[in-house]
Amino acid sequence: xxxxxxxxxxxxxxxxxxxxxxxxxxxxxxxxxxxxxxxxxxxxxxxxxxxxxxxxxxxxxxxxxxxxxxxxxxxxxxxxxxxxxxxxxxxxxxxxxxxxxxxxxxxxxxxxxxxxxxxxxxxxxxxxxxxxxxxxxxxxxxxxxxxxxxxxxxxxxxxxxxxxxxxxxxxxxxxxxxxxxxxxxxxxxxxxxxxxxxxxxxxxxxxxxxxxxxxxxxxxxxxxxxxxxxxxxxxxxxxxxxxxxxxxxxxxxxxxxxxxxxxxxxxxxxxxxxxxxxxxxxxxxxxxxxxxxxxxxxxxxxxxxxxxxxxxxxxxxxxxxxxxxxxxxxxxxxxxxxxxxxxxxxxxxxxxxxxxxxxxxxxxxxxxxx
Length: 370
Hints:
This protein has 16 helices and 11 strands. The protein has helices at about 20-30, 35-50, 70-80, 90-100, 115-120, 130-145, 155-170, 180-185, 200, 205-210, 220-230, 245-250, 250-260, 290, 310-325, 335-350, and strands at about 55-60, 85, 105, 120-125, 125-130, 155, 190, 215, 235-240, 270-275, 305-310. Strand 1, helix 3 and strand 2 form a beta-alpha-beta unit.
């Protein structure tokens, strides 16, 4: 429809009922305006991804697990609504606190941090973490996990997280309190977009000083991520915040098209929850429409929704909506499929007659539309 003409759904005079559930609440949002409308449309788009059996990537920036949101991710994995994850090292590191029963508490943001430091309390906004009982205890756990693993051999962060999930499941006090252990159970790959920028990498330092080398194969990692997109008939991303996780997921399109000349076209669906502004030029605030110019998304006008709000507000609403009205999906178990998908991309690249042609000059059909 032409957006410059006077047409569209009537705005209702909204009435709330004490017996309303999440589905009715989302309808309230969707029938309103501003970011409330965007939130309602995002919830419905997430449901559409599930209904169309899209391969769904969840990207999580910042530190969402210290506020307990790893439990929401766990539920989505168990229902088959998240197939692979790209996140920060902080989210994986802090999620493990819950599995091992290490204290994390609600605190306050209106405090004297000099006094918190004296009391050995670390603060993430209004979340308190004990320096010795939590951080140092977690550090010892991570150091033990990797003292003789992945040394002097190449690995990816998906393999790193898979091992963390396995060990935490077998040895922690509360393995059910970790989306990382659930990802291990369901073969959901968990990639860390910048592992060196986290306590996970800092804890490898004690072993590196003993001349143990850790060889992260970041190129294989980005090819694995691209192969997931390449081998998916439909694909989508749910982005919580922006940052490197957002770009890591979206750059799969340019890798396939710009570098490997596959003429893939990018993601079919993207939902972005962000509070970043687009006018500063940063990736976190970049619009999904701008991403079309890079080949990150199939259509700049359809299948993309941005909600400008705090992810801690929007994510539970999106999650509860699909948990309430979508049937459980069979797990795709992508972690075990990665070698096969990688090999398929490799073979097609070397066997393609358009390997040395640019995307725009290639006459090959869109792979995902086959």
